[in-house]
Amino acid sequence: MILLLMTVLIFAAVTAAALAVYQTAVTERNPVTLRLRELRLQTAGTGAAYQRRPPLLLKLIAQLGGFLPASDGRDAMRTGLVRAGFRRGDVLFVFLGSKVLCAVGLPTAWIVIGTAMARPVGNLATVSVVLGAIGFYLPTLFIAIRQRQRHGEILSALPDALDLMVVCVEAGLGLGAALQRVGVEIRLASRGLSDELSLVNQEMQTGVSRTDALRNLAERTGVEDLHALVAMLIQTDRLGTSIAASLRAHADSMRTRRRQRAEQLARKASIKLAFPLVFLIFPALLVVILGPAGIQLMKALGAGK
Fold first, then answer.
1. Is the pLDDT of residue 179 over 70?
2. What is the pLDDT of residue 61?
3. Residues ≥6 apart with Cβ < 8 Å to 108
4. Dihedral class, residue 114 (left if φ above 0, else alpha if ψ from -120 to 50, else beta)
5. What are the tens digits of pLDDT across the range 238-274?
6. Distance CA 244, CA 236 (A)
């Protein structure tokens, strides 16, 4: 059974690799594809991340991911990947291929290790199914953690970015130039927010309207405070009010929200400390304090007999 499984997996891997290499070779010989690639390399703009040729390993993983029927949920998955900071053209296929590789790789590694050590642990089929399910959801867990980290990074750097934007607008810069300047200055504090602001400016330079570019910013990040900022900027643009005054008022509210979130986390700290105190520290204190008294009591009761 193990030999048959290993043979099938090796055959599938070799077939996928050969198919990916064949399609890559066919694409390299296509004159239309070569011409489009030259035009893409000559164009400077928002597609800088897509101009780099992906490594061969990513091509193979993307080829494996292309076998999965995921047309129904591709938009939702692509939105989640973009919010995690992955905006490559083939990132969806790479993600799906990673799920396939992890789902097949973990049971295979366990079978190989168990066979080499001649000590298989547990039932072969049950453990393989469990490891396959764990491996299938490992990339999803990684994307969720990456998305949460990026969300927190953008959220913590947003008030400072708004203060810089207020200074730039009051100094006479337009909204696009202010976004570009703030994106450069805020890069040390938050790389994700810097990239998003620079991308908004690039979209407006390529002909996208300011409203659509700002809405794309809110959709790409998924941060609630950025949604509020975008709604305020769109309303200010439509009504013709002062952008500097609106940004200053919104920056004050953002600083207030950041202080409230810090206070909320401080209040939660006492509740979170209750569990380690009750289950880890208090039992040790009871043993140290009541242990000698218990020993003396046991000796006294033993001496009385």
1. yes
2. 59
3. 5, 6, 9
4. alpha
5. 887 788 888 888 888 888 888 888 888 888 888 888 8
6. 10
Residues 225 and 193: their CA atoms lie apart, in Å, by: 13
Would you say 178 and 168 are in contact if contact means Cβ atoms under 8 Å apart?
Answer: yes
- Cβ-in-10-Å burial (0-12, 13-18, 19+) of 59 comes to buried
Predicted TM-score (pTM) above 0.85:
no
- Which residue from 105, 109, 106, 77 is spatially nearest to 90, judged by alpha carbons? 77
- Contact (CB, 8 A) for 183 and 197: yes
Q: pLDDT digits over 64-78, tens only?
A: 555 544 444 456 777
Of 185, 251, 247, 179, the C-alpha closest to 216 is 179
**How far apart are the C-alpha atoms of 178 and 195, rounded to whole Å?**
14
Identify the pLDDT of residue 21: 59
The Cα–Cα gap between 182 and 33 comes to: 37
pLDDT of residue 51: 40
* Backbone region of residue 174 per phi and psi (left: phi > 0; alpha: psi in -120 to 50; beta: other values): beta
The dihedral sign for the CA sequence 65, 69, 75, 79: negative
Given a contact cutoff of 8 angstroms between Cβ atoms, the answer to whether 162 and 250 are in contact is: yes
Burial state string for 62-94 with b = 16 or more CB within 10 A and e = fewer than 16: bbbbbeeebeeeeeebeebbbbbbbebebbbbb
**Is pLDDT above 80 for 1?**
no
